[in-house]
User: What shape does this take?
Amino acid sequence: MKPNEQISWKTNIKRWGSELGFASVGFTTAESIEDLAPLLETRFEKEVATPFEIKEIRQRIDPRVVWEYCKTVVAVAYPLPLTTPPLEGEGIIARSAVGEDYHQVLQNKIKQLINIMVVNGWTGSFHSQVDTGPLIERAFAFRAGIGWIGQNQQLIIPGYGSFVTLALLLLDREIKPDYPMINQCGSCQRCVEACPAQIIGKEPFAAKHCISYLTQSKEVLTQKERRGLGLRVFGCDTCQEVCPHNQKRLAEEQQATSSSAPSSLRRGVDLRETLNLTKGEFHQRFKGTAAGWRGKGILQRNAFLALRNGLDRGDKVWLAEHEKNKIVPPIIALYLEGLENSK
Assistant: This one.
């Protein structure tokens, strides 16, 4: 592809991406990110990586291992929808897990972008991934110049903050890359101090101990981990909520009210109701959301732990009676048994 063609396609793809609602679109080369290899190896050696992470490091840092025809990586970020805060005493769902599953939303947006490219004469091939692919999206997004990676491991985009979802579009044509952005966190330590697991700012990053991961883990949690969940039922936004670059977004959310926002965009869930959900009710409430992918049992376990962690005396009495009379979902009975066996 000639230089003037590269510039034309780059300009158009960015414009089309903006028209589709992307917060940012950037370009980088297909070269591997070798600096990441030793960091990933250390995480596995120290057993602080999550089971969700692919152990084949080359697949995570080299686009050409994932797709041999890759010559350019296009990184895109799409903003999460505004949500309504939970009411007092409700369980908390992270923003990325509220509303329509972001994997599906972003995949549809990528398909729309590809269709526009094809209609306008693109004859090359594509390969895309949205979160579940092997490549480390935030690393390539950083190199593509759409944001910088904060101490909390989140990609921060000027004007949008970190409440975005990321995807990569691999192309078999060379397009001039963008330049990485300078880190703008400075000496700020807010996320380091606020992290409930106290793992931010330490190397290697212990993702296995992150509260967000623990809400998805099917292992029996330690007492410290159980308490660390607080009222969280799925995910954790604490390190992002204290970030100065997210305050504009949070101010906009504060203007939303439960009466004006669709129920599907509320981050609060009734803990007792969640604990007693039937299979049908679970599918009706959580099917099609990112919070539903780990199944009903995990959400009910977290609701159970949140009730235990809460300050509401009525909830504690209710929970104690149900535990005593064994009127709890099977997953909770097994979990209680696991707690006893772990003592």
The beta strands are 24-29, 72-79, 91-93, 126-129, 148-149, 155-156, 164-171, 232-234, 268-269.
